[in-house]
Amino acid sequence: MKKIYYPKHILIIVLLVSVAFVSSCKKILEPAVIELPTAENAITSSADVEKGIAAAYSFLRAVVPDKIFLMGDVRADVFSSYSQSVNVRVETPIATNSANALINNGGGNWAQFYTVIAQCNLVLEKIPLINNYDEQLRKRHTGEASFIRALTYFYLVRFWGDVPLNLKSVNIENLARTPQAAVFDQIKADLDVAIANLDIDYGDGDRAVRATRGAAWAIKAHVLGWLQDFSGCEKLCDSVITKGTYSLVTDTTNLLSIFVGKSKESIFELNFDAASRELQKNRVFNRTLGRPWYTDASDGGGGTDRFILSPSQVQLTTMFPTAVRDARFFTWFIKETVLQPVGAEKRVFLGKYRTLQLKGDTSSQNINESNIIITRLPDILLLRAEALAHPSVGRTGEAILLLNQVRARAFAPAYTGGGILGDTILLERRKELIGEGQYFFDLVRTRKLNKDSKITMTDWYERGAWLLPIDQNIIAKSNFMITQNDFWR
Question: In angstroms, what CA-CA distances link 204 with 152, 201, 248, 375?
């Protein structure tokens, strides 16, 4: 195995990000450094903890959008360039699963994830030391920090497998990679803390953009599904569905409201709001939309439609067969903007993320106020259907009811049998959750990566081709304590 960068001397320091105190690990994470206030005096009150948690959310918002879109959708070959040989950009070859393509698009660098973890570690260390702390607020802060740390490690272990496990804000040791089983144990423990400490709903205007018990149930359901514990996965999905406060958006003319944010079906999402200075230029937004939404082509995004990432016509027809009614085809995609054919090919844009700041400057690209969905009710309905349909659970009748509940919202025809039910549910997840960073994870979890990705069956699982490589710079800077994933040696 090759190697990654986990420093010999990790120093937690505190940054100021907007109004939030932000701590980080100096060597492994290498953020811009502001030495004052120091980690020792930055968090001494519940108000400081609130700022520290805001910083953790901010760090999560900085790393997740690009990573989950490029490595969760583009790598699954759901999106490709209008032309794979002309007007290409750096992300065009990701689906080929070559080391260069993955490394060049940040697929080898886990540093920003550890920034999030370092912040959570500091907050969790400081909370027990603070006096005059409202007990309900203390529980909420403990639950939120534990949830964010668990979600961050869940991304890490799904991307790279064995990863360094650090629960300290200051660690002077050089850490090797921890076996994934131990990392998953910690993820589950953190989610259990979140479930025990968080409420179902706080009713404070932060719906879905701050962690709740329902969000912790949902992520733990995904964790158990990933670990092939489909019975446990199903039970947690049922808790989200029956005990949560979530319901489907049924107005199909307004499905885009889901991505504006804080809809009644959203369970957890990353907030982007101009008033809170949360706007961001990322490749989820500016690689799925071209003109007239974006006009700046300086970074290869927005101004030239020819390299926009979108499903091919064949992929669209697979998801939405001609003459079969499905409201998602008319709401998820911008049919008014059709790229003229290259040969026989034509493309339509994914339009889920076309919520732009009013009077925004399209040349800057920092104009998109769509929220990035981490999980929402249809995800959990279909995950439960998948778990119920698995032979280890075998309750296919209930699985079909859930599948058809998602279809009915889109006025799509009900499933009445035929084919392999698991494959039908997987395709439904692809249709419903396209562009939300789920599909590559779905293919690995269901052991069906060869169905849609370009990773072959002989390589993808046993040899570890589904894992990302680790950047050689990280390996070298760790003094080779970090080792490379076997497939990428």
Answer: 25, 8, 21, 20
The crossing angle, in degrees rounded to 10, of helices 46-69 and 111-126 is: 160
Q: How many CA atoms lie within 13 A of 144 on its CB side?
A: 27
DSSP result, 177-202: PBPHHHHHHHHHHHHHHHHHH--S--
The angle at the Cα of 12, spanning 10 to 15, to the nearest 5 degrees, equals 135
- Give φ, ψ of 234 to 5 degrees: -60, -40
d(CA 3, CA 1): 7
Q: How do residues 14-72 score in pLDDT, each as one tens digit? A: 333 333 333 333 332 223 322 223 455 579 999 999 999 999 999 999 999 999 999 99
Q: How far apart are the first and last CA of the chain?
A: 5
Bond preceding residue 378 cis, omega within 30 of 0: no
For 423, the enclosing helix (H) or strand (E) is: helix 421-433
**∠ CA(329), CA(330), CA(335), 5° rounding?**
100
Residue 105's nearest CA partner among 483, 472, 478, 471 is 471
Q: Give Cβ neighbours of residue 475 (< 8 Å, ≥ 6 apart).
A: 2, 3, 4, 5, 482, 483, 484
pTM: 0.89
Q: Hey, where are the domains in the chain?
A: 1-198+455-489, 274-370
CA angle 406/235/124 to nearest 5° reads: 105
Give the whole-angstrom CA distance, residue 132 versus residue 1: 49
* Amino acid code (one letter) for 263: S
Sign of CA dihedral 47, 169, 141, 69: positive
Comparing 170 with 429, which gets the higher pLDDT?
429
Per residue in 154-181, pLDDT (tens digit) is 999 999 999 999 998 876 567 899 999 9
Q: Which residues on neighbouring strands pair with residue 309, listed in sequence order? A: 81
What's the CATH number of domain 1-198+455-489, 1.20.1050.10, 1.10.10.60, 1.10.510.10, 1.25.40.890?
Answer: 1.25.40.890
Q: How many helical (H) and strand (E) elements, i.e. helices and strands, does the chain have? A: 19, 8
Alpha carbons 222 and 229: distance in angstroms, whole number: 10
pLDDT in tens, 111-169: 999 999 999 999 999 999 999 999 999 999 999 999 999 999 999 999 999 999 999 88
